[in-house]
Amino acid sequence: MAQRIFGIAQGYEDLNDHQSLRDDPLFQVVCERGVRADLPLASPPTLCRLENRVDRKALSKIAEVFVETFIRSRPRCRRN
Known about the structure:
mainly alpha
């Protein structure tokens, strides 16, 4: 997931861009995989399969996590 999110954030919205990014040492570090030539990041077909598996139920759970994370990040209001 991190690979796809960071790719989009850096302007690589096309999955084909990930063919070269998967071997990029800096991109591997950003995705918290460490630099390993023998273990590249996910290939474009793997990322495509990941994106195609998301359904309504998964989107609902993702939205729930975002809302809960946002609520926990807010300071609590003290009432007298």
